[in-house]
Amino acid sequence: MSSRTAAALPGPPAAARRNAGRRPGRTVLWHVGVVVIVLVVIYPVIWMLGTSFKPATEIVTSNRPWPLHWTLQNFPDGWHANPGVTFGRFFLNSLFISVLAVVGTLLSCSFAAYAFSRLEFRGRSVLFAGMVVTILLPYHVLIVPQYAIFKQFGWINTDLPIVAPKFLATEAFFIFLMVQFMRGIPREIDEAARIDGCGPYRTFLYILLPLTRPALITSAIFSFIWTWNDFFTQLVYLNDTDRFTVPIGLSLFVDQTGATSYGPMMAMSILALLPVFLFFLAFQRLLVDGATSSGLKG
Amino acid sequence: MSSTARLDKRASASPTPATREHRTNRKQGFADRTAGYVFLLPWLAGIAIFTIGPLVYSLYLSFTNYDLLQSPKWVGFANYHQMFTADPRFMHSVRVTLIYVVVVTPVKLALALGVAMLLNRKRRGIGVYRSLFYLPSLLGTSVAVALVWRSLFSQGGAVSDGLASLGLPKTDFINDPSWALPAIILLACWQFGAPMVIFLAGLKQIPSELYDAVDVDGANKWERFRHITLPMLSPVIFFNVLLETINSFQAFTPAFVISGGTGGPADSTLFYTLYLYQKGFTDFQFGYASAMAWVLLAAVAVLTALMFRVSRVWVFYGDGGNR
């Protein structure tokens, strides 16, 4: 909607009041104001990007967010910052865990969501309430006993404590998101499938699952990003350097104090956030809408 | 918990197939019922193995001394007793966490609501702005951003130097016991985008006729906000308050990364979760850490129940108010 034409048209009083906010001057002022706030908010990201391309000397001497002399040296320096293991290993480890987490979450949570939103069985509402409570349950309450249990299993220092729970729908938030979405799908569709002879299993596989695609994509991206960014679980369970993931690899930079290590540190931070940025660019609408609807309908 | 009752009611409010099953044959109804458990099986197994089992186990461990090597030794209420009477670091971590929660929740939500109201109009580029404001919420919990914060706010960092150029004294925020926590609080508030998009969607659902009605009465901007926006938005505000409060109790990564795992300087960033981690995974006092976990669980449960109780007074579930 063009603000200029709206303001230029002479209109009745009611329209004039509505257009009061759309005079060109005010619109420009509004845009300037919002852009200033955006810049303040995005500044840390800009700083991170700029610093990753700055030579070490410049990081100490200047605080311009953008480098005077561009350099790529920080990237190989950061990549090889830890003796004996490169960030390549960390990235592969993170990727492996995150992809498995996505697969596990999508499978198990879509099963549970189908049961909660479409199937009738004894105790459904009590179980649903229990599921919602687990969304609010602080994870730190479970970490100590889980660690003790996984130690009995011999799972410490493997990916299993991080990945296995995802295959059993422990990320209840995604069940909730999918339930909300499935409830929006007209029941007449699966009624029709049923009349055509589809049982609950085939109805799920051929009717409901394809229709739930948008919620599945949103869940997949969030699940990937959360596992990719997750630090706590990986810190607790992974001990060997060659099992380390990107967040743990990054946290090793904390030991190297002083502004000289900022360049390599920020270079690796940028790489670490690259998948998140890419998902954000490609699916921003879906992500923001997903964050909105799952929240609002709660 | 009353939260569950409310959500539960809405869950079963949707038309259940029970009435329709009369039309289909009985066999199908049976298939449905067993299918329900079959589809729920992974989740049921998950909640038993990874949630309820550990919860019960940690309740038991909280009454023991356990270092993972020898079997747990029963000590009764000793862990709880020590926590509240003989562990100043515990009480300190409670204080740090409470300050954090009490400051972050209102400030972050005020920012979120303010920006949401600024964006709640039909203008070009709203979608882009909305996404850009949301970006920090996507990045915020990562180690990478915590490192950025550590760099920005430490000696010679951009913030310190920027303030110095304005004539203010140079501060090494990260290593100053009175400034480290505020820096972490700022990091949390920076992620106001997530509640903001929820506010924005809530604002869009307020019927414009309501504003037209008070405009006729000659209401000013504040009165519009006070008498229309706030009550109509109250269910969304409540949802955000609940979520942000519970999330704030669980903050860990920023404090861990910024303090290098110590909770320093001078324990000024010793968050509850960080102290729990230290007790469990540095000192291997699993019994004590379990007791801490249960205190956290009890605190969050009581607080949630309390918030639901208080919400009856101020949350307005009018027509379309909570859709």
UniProtKB/TrEMBL annotation, chain A:
<dbReference type="InterPro" id="IPR035906">
    <property type="entry name" value="MetI-like_sf"/>
</dbReference>
<keyword id="KW-0812">Transmembrane</keyword>
<dbReference type="InterPro" id="IPR000515">
    <property type="entry name" value="MetI-like"/>
</dbReference>
<feature type="transmembrane region" description="Helical">
    <location>
        <begin position="90"/>
        <end position="114"/>
    </location>
</feature>
<feature type="transmembrane region" description="Helical">
    <location>
        <begin position="162"/>
        <end position="182"/>
    </location>
</feature>
<keyword id="KW-1003">Cell membrane</keyword>
<keyword id="KW-0813">Transport</keyword>
<dbReference type="GO" id="GO:0005886">
    <property type="term" value="C:plasma membrane"/>
</dbReference>
<protein>
    <submittedName>
        <fullName>Carbohydrate ABC transporter membrane protein 2, CUT1 family</fullName>
    </submittedName>
</protein>
<dbReference type="GO" id="GO:0055085">
    <property type="term" value="P:transmembrane transport"/>
</dbReference>
<feature type="transmembrane region" description="Helical">
    <location>
        <begin position="126"/>
        <end position="150"/>
    </location>
</feature>
<feature type="domain" description="ABC transmembrane type-1">
    <location>
        <begin position="91"/>
        <end position="283"/>
    </location>
</feature>
<feature type="transmembrane region" description="Helical">
    <location>
        <begin position="262"/>
        <end position="283"/>
    </location>
</feature>
<feature type="transmembrane region" description="Helical">
    <location>
        <begin position="203"/>
        <end position="228"/>
    </location>
</feature>
<feature type="region of interest" description="Disordered">
    <location>
        <begin position="1"/>
        <end position="20"/>
    </location>
</feature>
<keyword id="KW-1133">Transmembrane helix</keyword>
<keyword id="KW-0472">Membrane</keyword>
<feature type="transmembrane region" description="Helical">
    <location>
        <begin position="28"/>
        <end position="49"/>
    </location>
</feature>
<dbReference type="Pfam" id="PF00528">
    <property type="entry name" value="BPD_transp_1"/>
</dbReference>
<comment type="similarity">
    <text>Belongs to the binding-protein-dependent transport system permease family.</text>
</comment>
<feature type="compositionally biased region" description="Low complexity">
    <location>
        <begin position="1"/>
        <end position="18"/>
    </location>
</feature>
Automatic annotation (TrEMBL), chain B:
<keyword id="KW-1133">Transmembrane helix</keyword>
<keyword id="KW-0812">Transmembrane</keyword>
<feature type="transmembrane region" description="Helical">
    <location>
        <begin position="286"/>
        <end position="308"/>
    </location>
</feature>
<feature type="transmembrane region" description="Helical">
    <location>
        <begin position="98"/>
        <end position="119"/>
    </location>
</feature>
<dbReference type="InterPro" id="IPR000515">
    <property type="entry name" value="MetI-like"/>
</dbReference>
<feature type="transmembrane region" description="Helical">
    <location>
        <begin position="35"/>
        <end position="60"/>
    </location>
</feature>
<feature type="compositionally biased region" description="Basic and acidic residues">
    <location>
        <begin position="1"/>
        <end position="11"/>
    </location>
</feature>
<dbReference type="Pfam" id="PF00528">
    <property type="entry name" value="BPD_transp_1"/>
</dbReference>
<feature type="transmembrane region" description="Helical">
    <location>
        <begin position="179"/>
        <end position="203"/>
    </location>
</feature>
<dbReference type="GO" id="GO:0055085">
    <property type="term" value="P:transmembrane transport"/>
</dbReference>
<feature type="region of interest" description="Disordered">
    <location>
        <begin position="1"/>
        <end position="27"/>
    </location>
</feature>
<dbReference type="GO" id="GO:0005886">
    <property type="term" value="C:plasma membrane"/>
</dbReference>
<feature type="transmembrane region" description="Helical">
    <location>
        <begin position="131"/>
        <end position="149"/>
    </location>
</feature>
<keyword id="KW-0813">Transport</keyword>
<protein>
    <submittedName>
        <fullName>Carbohydrate ABC transporter membrane protein 1, CUT1 family</fullName>
    </submittedName>
</protein>
<dbReference type="InterPro" id="IPR051393">
    <property type="entry name" value="ABC_transporter_permease"/>
</dbReference>
<dbReference type="InterPro" id="IPR035906">
    <property type="entry name" value="MetI-like_sf"/>
</dbReference>
<comment type="similarity">
    <text>Belongs to the binding-protein-dependent transport system permease family.</text>
</comment>
<keyword id="KW-0472">Membrane</keyword>
<keyword id="KW-1003">Cell membrane</keyword>
<feature type="domain" description="ABC transmembrane type-1">
    <location>
        <begin position="94"/>
        <end position="307"/>
    </location>
</feature>
